[in-house]
Structure prediction request, 98 residues.
Amino acid sequence: MNMQNLMQQAQRLQREITKKKEEIDNEIFPGKSEWVELTFNGKKELKSFKIIKDGDITNDDKELLEDMIFLAIKDSFKKIDAEVEQKLGQYSAMNGLM
Prediction:
C-alpha cells in the first residue's frame, strides 16, 4: 500500500468518525428517576429539566429530590456513553483519531 492510499484511508476514517460524533452530539438522551425527567444532547449539555413529583416538596424532600436529580443525570449519561461506545468503539484502538 502506498503512502497516498494510506493517507486517503486515514482521511476517510476521520470523516466517518466525525460524522458519527456529530450524529451523537445532535441526538437527545432522556434521563428519568421517580421525581425528575430531563434530557441531554450527546455533548452532555442539559436541554430540558422537569420535576414530575405530584404535590408539594417539603424541606424533608429536598435531599431526596437532589438524589432523584442525580439519578436522572446518571441515567442520561449512561445512555450517551453507550451510544458513543456503539458508534465509535470500533475506532478506539486507533489512537489519535478521536
Notes: The domain at 3-91 is CATH 3.30.1310.10 (Ybab; Chain: A;). The chain has one domain: 3-91.
